Amino acid sequence: MPAQHRSELEDILSDKVFAVESVGEHQIDDDDTEIVEEAKPGFCVECKDQRASMQCSHCNEPFCEVCYGMIHRTGKRALHAASPIITANEENGRRQSTSESNTEEGENISLHDNLTMNEPKKAAGPTFEEIMIHKAKFIPLRLSLDERKYLRLLEAALNVSEYTDRVDGFEHKSKAKRIVAQIKDICAVLSGLVTACDYRRGQELFADRTFEQNEDFFQKIFEIGRRHKIMNPEKMRSAYGKLMYMLMDSAIPEVEEMLGFSCVIPIKTVYSFLKERNGVDVLTNEIILLATMEIVPTGKTRLQIQTEIKRKERSIEQLSRKYSNPKLSADEIRHCLYSIGDNNAYLRANRHPCEKMLTYLQTYFKPDEFEPGYSLSISAGRSGHRLSHDHSTQYTYVNQTLMLWREILHEMFMLWSLADQDLLNSHNVYKLMDTGQGVQRMQPCPAIGREMHRTLYKAQKKAKTWIGSSVIHLGDKNVPNALMFIDKYNQVAKILNPIVLTLDHMDDLCKDDGINRYIQNTFGGVDQCKKEILLNFFRGAFDGSGADNFYDAGSCIDGRLTSAWNWCSQIEQKPFFTVFLLTGFVGFDGGGWN
């Protein structure tokens, strides 16, 4: 053995770490090593695309708030200490304020102390103006009457189209050519429908003009469909998928070049509409809260409701008169205010059921104790459960899941906007995969994934302790693309709303003597019946069931919703199903029962 190799072997077998490292440095081939991209200065070392806001003193690395929370949530890293990173601007501001305070202290110490004690502290969170502007950036503008006519034409064209069957099928013809042919077919149908409905308008648009020359018209009509769906998730159930897949294909550079025009423009929001017309100031006036509030009649007299309606109308008129200008009419301001009001109504219809279920959980169950026969504990292998939790653990698991759903639904419009961004990104390529539920378009979801991790971090921070997995399925066989993600979390309100309505209406239902007698004999009373429903739901809908392995269901973020939907599919087998029917239950999807 050569002397050099013998010395290297001795170093490897010995404790001379530095010698081994030095030997390795000389023999590493740059071509065979994987180059790990380093984070830019000032950015998070983990995700590399967010500004660092915290410096871990133990890891000696900078993190953004979300990555720091995920990595340091459990284990020994939970004991690590971190300090906020101060930017150059913040440091300059701090030095300036320090020098000014020192000057004042030298001039008059007692006066400075008095001023400091009386001076109000600045709020650490965002201001009212920042919250409203941020919110308005993701609220779609309500459709006008003319836009609703085009929406009906778009739906008619999409309903007769077989776009995905033709494009995603396995044919020998070039896929790009198939895509272009199908898009032009839809555009041709739209052109014919417009001409049939309004001959003069059709002549203006399509006489002696090509599709490329009508690019603005097609962009507008496709944007109307996307905007309408966000505001009305229950509409365009099959047509919306065709529309988004068509626009996804049209954004491919090769297809766009063959097509000759682009089909995609940004969704028109309240903020973008006001900004174009120099009317953003309307969002900074606190009266906007009164002008956009939803008037809920529950528990109010007719006089109270009428008073709230008049106050809301006065607020709308006041804002529309004050902020109108040559570019922005009073009617357009009203239109924007109504759009924000639609958002508040959406939140009440979708987020409110989560809050109601949290209230029911905290009212009828306690985390540390339980009544005999009403324990939330579950055991894997029994009654279809796939998780094993004692009462306290299951209570925490259900509580944090409902809190997470509430956070997701609160940010749903923003998540929908990010999903739109992921789907229509020309550089975000999809591939056809058989996921076990048919052939699906599997596509990465970077924007929506980043925001979901931020939302999960906020929920974990509020919950303090986290039960189960933190895995978020996106761009895999469980949630192939952002469209499937949006569709999945739109089901939360469909699951919870019928249960909440049943529980809320039971007291009124029992005013009937016959029904009251039935519930007394079967369940032992109204409260006992409510407890039976809640106990069955909190145990059976949060037990990890719904799939044949822990990757597809279980306790992951996506699996929690899978388990809840699995419970809904078995509702007719429950002993309290007749109570649901008596309260007007028509199914979790609104389809009714035969």
TrEMBL record:
This protein's name: B box-type domain-containing protein
An example Gene Ontology molecular-function term: zinc ion binding
Matches recorded under InterPro entries: E2_Ub-conjug_enz (IPR018553), E2_Ub-conjug_enz_C (IPR057668), Znf_B-box (IPR000315)
Signal peptide segment: none
Keyword Ribosomal protein found: no
Disordered: annotated segments: 84-121
Pfam family, one: ANCHR-like_BBOX
Domain B box-type: 39-85
UniProt keyword annotations, A-Z: Metal-binding, Zinc, Zinc-finger
